[in-house]
């Protein structure tokens, strides 16, 4: 494949992106979902692999919550269905809702063959889960509850004593909690997932842009976490002028400081245009923090809002710095436009290995994994599992990496930090498929 820069992102995986993908404005999570209906061949119902299904009678009974199915009506949910269920029961249930064979080819090169990497690994993970201790789940719960406690304590103390140092501590706990709470919104509806909304970000929006887009078509032209940052930050390898390449060095810190505010403003603007379509009553959880600060802090409303805003900026900086430099961006990581491993029979699990790197400082610490998007490969492959449980799955993962002659790339945090800036500057597509053994050869 050519390694010449292209002027606009193209999918070397053959994925047709939603029409608004290339508009400088207008792409939102809801527009993405609506336009997917035109490209996914789901014929107004739900598509799983090459079958069309009607889950209308099942939506309200879905054990994972109705939101996952209401959001995705009219789209291809193959990757979402595979990644979110480890037990075999959902697949057995599918038959009941089958309508007909789909008329078109899937708009995705990813496969889930029974003897392929992902399904083979999933089978063994299913077995491993039977003997796994429950303690890691409880430890994660304890950790996030403690983070929430300190967030509230320091936020109230920051207004009470009007102390910016305490405000910074509160902001750090907000950043930690927002990353850790992401552990919870991938699963069935639960109360702890609402901790995420203290950041002004919204679970519904993140279930779309993160769980249903980024997690499933990672680093592709269809990954909303990438496309919503364009044209400011351009992670896909395309021709960029010096302004865009070097400008990103300055833009990243600014985006970090305003990340929470940008997300909130974008959602409110969209809600205004759509008569509140994307708002939920549960969004009011975001107000619990400033209300507590006002009632217990003893300062005026304006002063309280000022300090709350300060805490949000610190939390935003923390969250975005961790998120942007966690796992996915480095010149050696596959980004759509590079030569892929395959463009038509591409095991979805392998696509995840190609699209990320693990950080060695984070592996092995439950706290760091929970607060730094750690054990990211296993998290992408099995997003409904608690982050604390993932470390128990490394032996099974390792066995299957060897069986399929692939590797998990483990680098340092500095490598992914630097690598993400190098990726923003990269204009030339990689002419060769990802070399997963390169890093193990080095060590
Ligand atoms: C967009 C597609 C879907 C998503 C994102 C999704 C997501 C989820 C989630 C997050 C859970 C809870 C897992 C946990 O917390 O451990 C779950 C459970 C479950 N889902 Fe889905 N689901 C989808 C489609 C379906 C469909 C189409 C069926 C049935 C045909 C189904 C059947 C089940 C069942 C039976 C469970 C209970 C747990 C189990 O037995 O594995 N889901 N789902």
UniProtKB/TrEMBL annotation:
Biological process per Gene Ontology, one example term: lipid metabolic process
PROSITE patterns recorded: CYTOCHROME_B5_1 (PS00191), CYTOCHROME_B5_2 (PS50255)
Annotated Pfam families: Cyt-b5 (PF00173), FA_desaturase (PF00487)
Alphabetically ordered keywords of this record: Heme, Iron, Membrane, Metal-binding, Transmembrane, Transmembrane helix
Gene Ontology molecular function terms on file: heme binding; metal ion binding
UniProt domain Cytochrome b5 heme-binding: residue ranges: 35-103
InterPro entries: Cyt_B5-like_heme/steroid-bd, Cyt_B5-like_heme/steroid_sf, Cyt_B5_heme-BS, Cytochrome_b5-related, FA_desaturase_dom
Transmembrane segments: 142-159, 165-185, 246-264, 284-308
SUPFAM superfamilies in UniProt: Cytochrome b5-like heme/steroid binding domain (SSF55856)
Cited function: May play a role in muscle cell metabolism.
Family, per entry: Belongs to the cytochrome b5 family.
Protein name: Cytochrome b5-related protein
Organism: Acanthoscelides obtectus (Bean weevil)
Lineage: Eukaryota, Metazoa, Ecdysozoa, Arthropoda, Hexapoda
């Amino acid at each position: 494949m050519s390694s010449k820069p292209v002027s606009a992102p193209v999918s070397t995986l053959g994925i047709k992106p939603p029409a608004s993908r290339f508009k400088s404005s207008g792409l939102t999570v809801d527009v993405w979902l609506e336009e997917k209906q035109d490209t996914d061949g789901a014929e107004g119902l739900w598509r799983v692999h090459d079958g069309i299904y009607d889950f209308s009678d099942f939506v309200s009974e879905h054990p994972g919550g109705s939101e996952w199915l209401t959001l995705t009506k009219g789209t291809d949910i193959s990757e979402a269905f595979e990644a979110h269920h480890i037990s075999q029961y959902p697949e057995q249930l599918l038959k009941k809702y089958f309508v007909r064979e789909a008329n078109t080819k899937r708009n995705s090169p990813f496969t889930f063959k029974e003897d392929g990497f992902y399904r083979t690994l999933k089978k063994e993970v299913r077995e491993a889960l039977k003997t796994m201790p429950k303690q890691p789940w409880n430890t994660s719960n304890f950790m996030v509850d403690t983070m929430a406690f300190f967030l509230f304590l320091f936020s109230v103390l920051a207004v009470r004593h009007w102390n910016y140092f305490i405000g910074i501590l509160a902001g750090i706990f907000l950043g930690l909690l927002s990353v850790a709470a992401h552990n919870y919104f991938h699963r069935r509806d639960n109360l702890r997932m609402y901790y995420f909304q203290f950041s002004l970000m919204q679970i519904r929006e993140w279930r779309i842009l993160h769980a249903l887009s980024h997690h499933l078509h990672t680093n592709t032209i269809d990954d909303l976490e990438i496309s919503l940052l364009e044209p400011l930050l351009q992670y896909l390898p395309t021709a960029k002028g010096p302004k865009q390449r070097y400008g990103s060095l300055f833009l990243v810190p600014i985006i970090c400081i305003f990340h929470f505010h940008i997300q909130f403003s974008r959602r409110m603007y969209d809600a205004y245009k759509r008569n509140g379509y994307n708002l939920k009553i549960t969004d009011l959880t975001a107000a619990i923090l400033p209300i507590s600060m006002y009632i217990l802090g003893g300062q005026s409303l304006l002063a309280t809002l000022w300090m709350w805003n300060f805490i949000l900026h610190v939390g935003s900086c923390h969250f975005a710095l961790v998120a942007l430099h966690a796992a996915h961006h480095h010149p050696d990581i596959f980004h759509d436009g590079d030569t892929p491993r395959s463009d038509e029979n591409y095991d979805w699990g392998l696509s995840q290995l190609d699209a990320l790197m693990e950080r060695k400082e984070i592996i092995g610490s439950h706290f760091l994994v929970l607060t730094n998007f750690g054990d990211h490969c296993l998290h992408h492959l099995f997003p409904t599992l608690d982050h604390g449980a993932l470390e128990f799955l490394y032996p099974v993962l390792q066995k299957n990496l060897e069986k399929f002659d692939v590797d998990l790339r483990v680098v340092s945090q500095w490598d992914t930090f630097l690598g993400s800036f190098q990726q923003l500057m990269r204009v030339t597509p990689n002419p060769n498929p990802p070399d997963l053994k390169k890093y193990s050869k080095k060590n």
